[in-house]
Prior knowledge:
With about 450 residues, this protein is mainly α. The chain is built from 19 helices and 3 strands. It has a 3-stranded antiparallel beta sheet.
Amino acid sequence: MSSLRKALFYRIDGIVLLLYVLLVAIGIMAIFSVEHRTTDVSIIMMNKSYMKQLVWFGYSLILGFMILLTDSKFFSSFAFLIYSIALAVLVITIFAGVDVKGSRSWLGVGSFRFQPGEIAKIFTAMALAKFMSLPETNFRKLKDRLLAVGIALSPAVLILLQKETGLALVYFCFFIALYREGLPNAVLVIGFSAVALVLATLLLDRRVLFIALTVLGALIALLMRHTLRRRVEPWVLLIGIWLFCIAFSQVAVPFAFKHVLQRHQIDRIFSTLGKEVPDEYDKTMVAGEEKKGNSSEYNVLQSKIAIGSGGFWGKGFLNGTSTKNQFVPEQNTDFIFCAIGEQFGFVGSAALVVIYIALMLRIVFIAERQRSVFTRVYAYCVASILFFHFAVNVCMTIGLMPVIGITLPFLSYGGSSMLSFSILIFILVRLDADRQALIR
């Protein structure tokens, strides 16, 4: 190995790689714990998910080593090109995707399948970082802000057309990186207000909500009466906001629930809110189908039983009853956190949370020590993706959020998930190795 490559490996952030390997090892152990049976003839059984995950980890390490040997300027130079190819693949997936549980978000060649939307997160992060690092980009201008949002959300629109809502929501996490680069606080206020308005629309009768919004608007007008007397613009703004809220709650949200969201997504949302699905949104009687129980409610119930049964210390490795007996659906993918909670209890779950937080804080630290805007924005994108997946998945398993099919990074079984998160980490480590260089 040349002296240049030796110097490169000395500059690699070992803490990030150590935390990465630790999480992958915990994930493989967790998958093994829910799949292993005393009747198994051997631990090494290639038809088991934990062995397949180990193979995917091997592929990830090989690919990661290749990334570390790649010139760091490659990732910025080809960011837009690779992003364009990713968008084209997402378009192809809409028409040629394999139908899996109602979504067409998978492409398959023979027995091999992968989810383009998972891989597209990497290229979206690179394209966003490239755009933000261009000398001509001025993020204070509305045009450049809209272009950045367009780069971040274009894949989400295509993934929504594939009927994969959970994965599409991940792309909204890029707003965290944009906020670090100067996105106004008003955007966050609008975002949280929209979420609150959606919840109010689902929890309240629409007539009651209409009256409440009207009264709220009148109270604001009363408090601002001196300003409203002198200028007409505040009147226009206030009336415009009131009309938007009314149209959003009375038309947009009901339309989305009736014509956009699928039956299982509606079930999950109302299950999380602790409400029965209203008759106007109930799609269980379509084509004479008999109404069945809410499967997502059952999933979350079993998940909470498994985690709760672990108590403070847990039942011990390989001693989980709910996960061992497959009471928890998707227990090696979306609900893998249950295996940790049941076997290692509150202590093990808290330790896992600490590891994730340590990894995300380390990535933020790496982001802030960069000389290059490209690497800083990319690092914040990586931290945002990890945070969104981690927070939503854990909240999903304990019933605080709807079940939307979000994987737990490095722990959930899946080749596409393992490769995408590994590539994100290795590109970050490679870029950080050249942190004193100006990468554009």
